[in-house]
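Closing statement on the magnesium ion sub-project.
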Amino acid sequence: MKIESIALREVRMRLKSPFETSFGTVQDRRIVLVEVVVDGTSGWGEVTAGETPAYNAETTDTAWHVLSDFIVPRLVGKSIFTSSEVPALLNQIRGHEMAKSGVENALWDAEAQLSGLPLYKHLGGTTEEIACGVSLGIRENPATLVKRVEEELRSGYQRIKLKIKPGKDYEFVAAVRKEFPKIRLSVDANSAYTLDDATHLKSLDEFDLLMMEQPLSWDDIHAHSKLQAQIKTAICLDECIYNTRHALTAIELKSCRIINIKLGRVSGHTEARLMQNACREHGVPVWCGGMLESGIGRAHNIAMSSLPGFSLPGDVSASQRYWSEDIIEPAVEVTATGTIQVPKTPGLGYAVKRELVERLTVRRNIFSRGRVAS
Ligand code: OSB
Ligand code: MG
């Protein structure tokens, strides 16, 4: 596979409604899209970094910089046999997993097309229908949250995740649990608590939650093992886990009983596949996390979710929950039973709406053989 060119585009996309987490609120997304051309075939990837370094260290602008100055020059013009060689080629660049993932995943899309296979099959996926949940941002009060939950359940979603933060936790979860005693319910704190809050977090045990996601510091696997020993609810790690070594450390330390895999956070499909396999060998369920992606990142999430380790519903939901018009066609749709049918045409299985992408683009850089072409 000859990597003929790599194009970076930044698109601006406005979410239908603001999304609030413990670290802030976002509505206007600045998304870096990556288009590679390999042996004449174009493949697409998305960088899932946020606009600010509040979830992890990366941002739209750090990704643009590291891609333009370090990642793309190492890849453009090269010939590779398979996209799983990419992590080794980028080994000298520390961190910047989301930037790396944008290119690696675009190469996987191209490679699957060149092999005439849907991406999910090319990756080794084993299911053609994936289970979906939703992640609900923090609300003004418990009553409005309960109303949102009801709407999502009516659409068929199989698991509801509530974002929480200090002062917006116990009563919100209690209200939802009271109204819906049987649903699969979880919470995500995005690192908003410390070990001093252990007793308070333990009070959530009474709600029979499927999991509590990343309650403590974004970089502290050890603290989570101390918390997990004190609470009944299964901890799920998100922010702490960038690679399979981290996952194995967390499993050995009993820091969590579930792991959220995000393609961007773990640097792409190669590492994601290794991680879900390692977790499966240790009996640790994984699920696919979301980063408010456009259709391109969403399509990659769908393909990844078909791998055998993904045994819990992910945060992969319909395009129309996020965007009035998505940049792929067809848009991602969810069935009445809360599933997504994995597309079976070669590559991502969704077409990129090039004209719309053009209209949304605010800057671009096209590299061929290491030089900026335009
Ligand atoms: O922690 O899972 C998270 C969104 C932005 C940053 C972090 C997270 C999230 C979500 C949204 O929970 C998931 C989605 O619907 O894409
Ligand atoms: Mg999370």
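Residues 188, 190, 213-214, 238, 260, 289 surround magnesium ion (ligand 2) (CB under 6 Å). With this model delivered, the sub-project is considered complete and its resources will be redirected to Aim 3.
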